[in-house]
Structures are given as C-alpha cells and as structure tokens.
Amino acid sequence: MLTLRRFAAVLIGMVFALALPVAVFAVRFDQTLLSANYYTDQLRDRGVYEFLMVDLLESAARDALNSPAEALESSEAERFLEESDLTAEQIVDAVHQGLSPEQLQALVEPAILEFVGYVTAEQDEARIRFDAGPVARGLLRGGLDLLRQGGFYEWVVDAEILPAVGEYSEDALSADPEFVAQIVRQVITPGWLAATVEEVAVPVVDYVFGESEGFAIRVGLSESQAAVVASEVAETLPGEELVGLVRTHVLTPAIADEINSIEDPQLGFTPPPEAVAAAILSDSSSGSIERQLDSFANELGGYLAGRSDGFSTQFDFTATKDSARSELESLVRGQILTELESLPQCSGQTDSIGAVAGESPPTLPTCLPPEVTPEELMDQSYAETATAASDQVLDAIPDRIAFSESDLNDATDLVAGAGSFESIDDWRNLVGEGFEYTHLDMRADLESAGDLEDFDEFRSFFADGIVISADGSSSEGFAADAAAELGEFRNWVAEYRRGVLVSIAVAAALLLIAGLLAGNTGPSRLLWASAILLAPSLFWLVIFWPAFEIGLGAAEELAKSEVDVSDAGSFSDTAILASDYSIETAFAIAGDFMNGPQLAFGVLSALAVAGIFGAHDRKQRLRSQVNQDGS
C-alpha cells in the first residue's frame, strides 16, 4: 500500500514539476510587466533618459551636421547647416535648455505610473498631464539661442529674404530687384529679425501648449524703419527711372490725348507723343525738372513706405516747353524730310510746277521735282510749316499735369498686368502697418484646413491633461475611447491575478498531497515533500540560470549581427548606436526578468535542502528517543 501511495506521489510530483514554473513565472509576470513601477525603474536603471538626450541626440546632431546636401529633407535646413559653424555640443546644450534627461524623466514617469496603473487595474482612474509649457519655452529659448550662435538670421536675410524680395519686386512690383533689395537690407537687419522672431514665438508657443487663452502679435516696422524706407526710396530711386516714369506715365498719356484732339494738324499728321515727351524732358538736369523730380521722389517714397494714404504731384512744364521748341521743330522737320525723301521723281513739267507751288493750308507734294533735293524743298516750302506744327503741338500740351496714386495704379496695371497695383498696396500695408496675427486667425486657418478639432484636442491635452476612468464618467473624447478599449484588458488583468493565486495554490496543494501520500510520519512526509520540491527546483534553476545566460548572450550577438541599418543613409552612425543600445537594453531587461525565477528556484532549492536536512535530523532524534525509551 505504501509503495502504491509513493508511486502516486511521484506522479503528482511530475505534475508539480510543471506547475512550479507556471506559478513562479505567473508571479514574476505580475510583479514586472503588470506593475507600473517596473517600467519606470527599467527606464531609470537602464539610463534610457541619458541615452536619448545625450548620446543619441549628440550622434544625430553630428550626423546632421556632416550630412551631404541630399541627406536632409528640407533644403533650407540643409543649406543652413552646411553654411553654419554649429557643433553637435551646441545643439545638445540648446535642447537641454528645455528638455534635459532629468526633465524628460520628470515628464514621463508620472504619466507611466498613472497609465500603467490604470491599465493593470491597480487603480480605477488615470489622470495624465504633461506640463509641456515650460519644456516648450525652454526648447524655444534654446533653439533661438542656437539660431543666433549659428548666424541663422544673417544667413536667412542674405540667402532667403533678399532673393525672395527681389523676385517679388520684379514680378509683382515691376521694380528693379537690386533697388528693392538695397532698401530691404537697410531695414530688415539680422538684429531686428532676431528680436522680432523671439518676441513673436513665445506667445504663440504658450497658446499652442495651452498656457494661455489667446495671443495677438504684430510684426511690422517701427516708425524709424518706415522713415528709412521712405528716405531710401527717395534717395536711391535712380534719376533715369524717374525721368522714364514721368515721360511714360505722366507726359506721354497727356500729350497723346491733347495731340489727338488737334482738329487740323499741319500737313495732316503730328509727331509721336513719346518723341514729344522725350523732347520736353531732354534737358532733365535743369533746375526746374530736378527740383520737381526730387519732390516727386519724396512723395512717392513716403507713399510706398505707407507713411501717407496718397499723393498728388503737379508737374510744371512751362519752362521746359519753351526750351523744347527748337528740338521739337527739328523733330517735325525730320518727319517732313522723311516724307519728302520717300516721294518719287516728277515725270513732267506740270507735275514739277505743282510740286513746288505753295498751298494754304500747306500739303505735301505728290512727287519730287527734278534737280531739287528734299532738303532744298524743305527749306524753300516747309520751314515755316515745321515751326507752325511744333508750336501747334506745344500749345496743345497743358503747362501743368497732375500725377496721383490713381495714375500710378493705371500705370502699374498697364506695365505688370491688371491687379498688379494690389501688390503695391500689400507692400505699403506691410511696411506701414505691419502684419497682425491672432489666435483667431490661427484657428480660422486650421478650420479651413480641417485640423481645428485635432488642434483643440492637442491644446486640451497639454493644458488640462486627460482623465481615463473605468466607468467612463470622467472621460471625454480620446479618453472615453481609450477607457472603452482598455476595459477588456483591465478585466483580463483582474482574471489573470486571480489565476496567479490559483496557480500558487495548485502548486502548493500538489506538493502537500505528494508529501502526505509518500510519507507515513511527519519527518518522512517532510522529507518526501522537500525531495519533490528540490528536484524540479534544481532542474529549472539550471535551465534558467547558466543555460539561459549562455543562450541569451549568443542570441544578443546574433541579433546585433542580423540588424541592417544600411537604409539609414547619412544617419548610419546614429542608427547603429540606437540599434546596439536597443538590443543591449532588450536583452538586459530579459535577463533582469529572469532574475526573479532564478532567485525563486534558488530559494526553493535551498528550502528543499533545508527541509531534507530538517526531516533527516528530526527522524534521527525520534529514533534516538525511541531507543532511549526502549532501554
């Protein structure tokens, strides 16, 4: 009977040998992967924060600085990094102004404790909030310092703003790009740009991360800068361009209207308006024209700088018309002479007599008499006509011609296309009034792009955090969805924890039953139970200690050799560093996880050995006591 009982005990012991690791690993799993503290301890003990914010960040910065032109997605960032003298250490220091390893740890750990605590059913509510405002401001401050150190503002003025302004001025304003760039260079200095960016960035970042309820920023030139623009326009606008503007858009249209209204022009034709305007302005260096051009430049400069709502200049051509009479007469003579030179030779005496006969009003002959040159015919018959024609044209031109912003509008649309004057208005508003932008404008832009709802959730998350509750009473939006999705997992965790207790109870019951069956006395039962405990404990200790450690090391080396980071391009050094660290950390965590079972099997083995010796000692003492009683 005892043999049968011991045979049954051995069979139960074999079942116990399988139930023991199940119970041990169930407990270990509950103590680690289902414990919030386990994750925070691992991140801290493995130096994850230091690795991310020091080693990996510095490596990525170094790779970025050493990257060839095609490695970076942003051509602007690529060009700036290529041309700057920044170092990887400077980039790391800038990031640490907002997010050091300690700050990252302080930001992440509370969220992990709350979230994992909720997921693993240790608590019924999770309140997660990232206080990202100070971090964002610190990162912003570090980034702005980095831009100053790297000469970003000098670079962006020369490499981005001036070329863009030049293209805009040529396409939209129809102005000389070099001329406009010269003005911009005097006003948009690197120092002003840096101060403006730094002043604008903080309120925007505060609003985005929920630190404020709104913002209103204005980017514009100061009164002194606007005065510089006006002065530069007035002083830098080339004289020839001013003369061309006056000739093309002031004189020529007025002359064309007046000449076309002459009822009986001499010889039936009039000189071209452009030629008449050029004749009147031929002596543009005269005091009268110079003073008028200076005054016009000042008014135009103030208008383009947004310092006035409009302008109206009166050009007085009285003096220049008088000085242009002789030149205009020469112009008319040249026209008449050209017509005469194009005439055929007269074929008969009658034609010759008719050709030189004077008529009133004078008309051009139909042919050129023999032995009479066009010049001779001009002097004989049309000299007075040329004088009369030039006087007729000059007398038709008004002494004063006005030019205002409406004329500038027409002139701009004529040169650059309809609606081009709006670009000048945009320029004037930008220079004179600046650019205003508020949180309402930002929200309108986001709404038009369909991103407003996501943006509000983003702000709400950083401003108020999220609350995930088991019953959903405190949850909204994403939190409510998360609570619903995680409910099933929380139920599984609760069931699992009950299963852990069951596995421990089953293993303990099997061991107890095996001991009771195999022994017939207390010491023998303890001896059998200890032996049944020792055998699987030693077996699993060997499996999960030296054998596992050897296999784990080999697997780690194999994993490192199998990882391919060839597609990382110029960031291959960073990819290799991240890959090696990830593999080492993963296997270190696996080793740490196995430390629990190793320790448990070791302790159980020690207890089993102690039980065996205790049972043997108890048996010896009982035997000695029996012998003494018998004697």
The count of strands amounts to 6
For the termini, the CA-CA separation is: 32 Å
With strands numbered from the N-terminus, the spatial order across the biggest sheet is 1-6
The largest sheet is: 2 strands, antiparallel
* Residue fraction in strands: under 5%
Individual helix count: 25
List the uncertain runs: none
Query: Please, what is the average pLDDT?
Result: 78
Q: Which percent range fits the helix content? A: over 70%
Structural class: mainly alpha
- Using the alpha-carbon principal axes, give the shape: rod-shaped
Output the radius of gyration. Answer: 48 Å
Number of domains: 3
Describe the structure in your own words.
- Helix 2 (36-45) packs antiparallel against helix 6.
- This protein has helices at 2-31, 36-45, 48-65, 75-83, 88-96, 101-119, 132-149, 152-171, 177-187, 190-208, 223-236, 239-260, 273-280, 287-304, 318-323, 325-341, 349-356, 374-396, 405-416, 421-432, 439-448, 452-464, 478-518, 522-562, 572-630, and strands at 125-128, 216-219, 312-316, 400-404, 435-438, 466-469.
- The protein folds into 3 domains: 2-34 and 490-630, no CATH class; 48-214, no CATH class; 231-432, no CATH class.
- The chain contains 25 helices and 6 strands.
- 74% of the residues lie in helices and 4% in strands.
- The chain is rod-shaped.
- It is mainly alpha-helical.
- The two termini are 32 Å apart.
- The chain has a two-stranded antiparallel ribbon. A two-stranded antiparallel sheet has the order 2-5. A two-stranded antiparallel sheet has the order 3-4.
- The mean pLDDT is 78.
